[in-house]
Amino acid sequence: MTGPLYRAFLDRADRYVIEGWARDETDPFTPVPLAVFRDGVQVAELAAESWREDLVEPGHSDGYCAFRHVWVPPLPENDFSRIEVRLPNGEQISGSPVFVPAPTDEQTVLGMRGAIDILDHERVAGWIRDEDRPERAVGVTVLLDGQEVAFLKANSFRRDLRDLGLGSGRYGFEFLFTFPPDPLTAHTVEIHPDTGSPFPEGAKILPAAEGFFDQAMMNLAHREIGGLRDVEKIRTAADFLASCLETLRRKDAEGTLGLGSRREIRRLRRQEANRTVTVQRQVLVIDDQTPDARRDAASVALLSHMKAMQAAGLKVFFTPGLIPGCREDVLALLEEQGITVLRPPLWESVEAILRQAGEAFELIYLHRLGNASAYLELARRLCPMARIIWSVADIDSLRLRRQAQVEQRPELTLLAAQSEARERMITWRANVVITHSDEETARIREGVPSCAAVTVRWAVPVGKTMYRPAKRDRIVFLGHFGHAPNRDAVRWLATEIVPALRRLNPSLAITVFGSGMTAETLSFACDGLTFAGYAPELPRVFAAARLMVAPLRFGAGIKGKILESWAHGVPVLMTPMAAEGLPLLAAQRSCVAPAETAAFVAALAALWGDEDRLKEQSALGRKLLRASFAEKSVEAEMAQALSAAFAGKGMKSGSL
Length: 656
Hints:
There is one protein chain. Mean pLDDT is 89; it is low at 649-656. The longest helix has 25 residues, at 231-255. The protein contains 19 helices and 28 strands. Helix 7 runs parallel beside helix 8 (369-382), helix 8 (369-382) runs parallel beside helix 10 and helix 12 crosses helix 17. It is 36% helix and 26% strand. It is elongated. It is an alpha/beta fold. It has 4 domains: 6-100, Sandwich (Immunoglobulin-like); 105-206, Sandwich (Immunoglobulin-like); 278-455, Glycogen Phosphorylase B (Rossmann fold); 469-629, Rossmann fold (3-Layer(aba) Sandwich).
């Protein structure tokens, strides 16, 4: 069955009326429906059903195939209107389009001014002004590769044009391609003004998207993938995209990680025995998630260690092993420090990095027990030449064993034994083990005497806050409440310490700040114990603090909350567990109170009321930080750890 065969013609078009005829040659006695457009906008629908004697064809047409449309009001005489009449299939009838009134050469004296400002695979935009009739909006036809794709009026407001003195500024136009041009092919785009005079800039070339992956290419891929329905085609597309991802990873490894140049340098050194050719050492740092100094002390320590490795001449790369997401502001801070984050979707796992780019790293730094357990053996297998550092963070088995005693949970004793076995195996397999305190280093060496264990603290900048206890009235506790020792501390505060403190001095209260607060943590709020939640700006917390408490009954390692408090000049009353690992000065030991309610409360009340002692402790805290937690001290400790890691390779620092 064949479709309609139309014959049609626009006979007359002026400011008052348009006339013409249309006939379906396959069905000449059925009126043809038509659509009338003015300046690209449909303004009328009509049927070619009026009688005209000249259209009568005996035996074929009865002459009822004419149409007539009257303009009410008449079209403006000082502007050009583009008139189109279209058939049901969207095609224009013969004689259409036409401009009314028709432009003449006498009407064009000064001509057109204009420019194409934007041209890509999504849109074309610019401006045009008729210098002879600046009050009117010029109609423009957009042609793509010689084919008309749109007609529109250049009447959009452009402030820049008005500010340049071009009348009202309403000379802008913009067209979004309904079917974007194929980005793999070059295209010609032309703008034709309604006067018939040439566009000032002439034709423009839209280049093919070769050698780069621009928005047009992404849109094309998205459309093609979104249109897939057949299962086999979906699987074929998945295989193709997987191969593309592999290619992109290889290119990133060769470019960002410098794998190609490093291989070439190694080849030259092997073949030519040229030991003078060197390249910067690179380290891959692996932690649960991207470090954020505002979240927890472990992040602060890790950031300090990465900076110290940079000071030692290493180029630092980081990847999250557990939680890939990260805020853009955190990533921006890392980039400012020269740390490159390898993350999804390009690098979706630690294994993908080690498998495809492991050769790029001379050192792999594993932070915490979980990451060391998951990736040490994988790194040994995939990166046999890399040295491995395990940064303990804190000794899990020790913390679990202490937690089992305090909470009377014997099942934790079994977990502690399992963790201790993992810790000893990792200690034996790693080249160097890093801890944050001499006490932890001694414990690691006691478990595996042959290991290389090194104490590397972290840098804590000392603030310039003026501490005046007489002007402060707040006692604070700070912590990350995804950490069990901090949750237990809150429980002890709520059930024993705060009630006893209020009986001794009803005016005293404690405010809790920190991240990771759960409903269970918040449920401990009571009279004298309030929860202020996460505080991204610690200086504000400590600016009003007279004293901080660290009522920890179990844990392991150095407690970052204490260092932060001292850095802001605020003294800390702590339990022996909280003070563990800190190289306390002799006079600071008076701020260590037994982990027993009555003794801790008495010490707290006494320290609170002694302004001279508070001032002394504020100064001592800063003194300790400057002596043991300065950036230069950390760099020296890290240099010692790196020297131990590379000692077996017979290399000078900084060379491959």
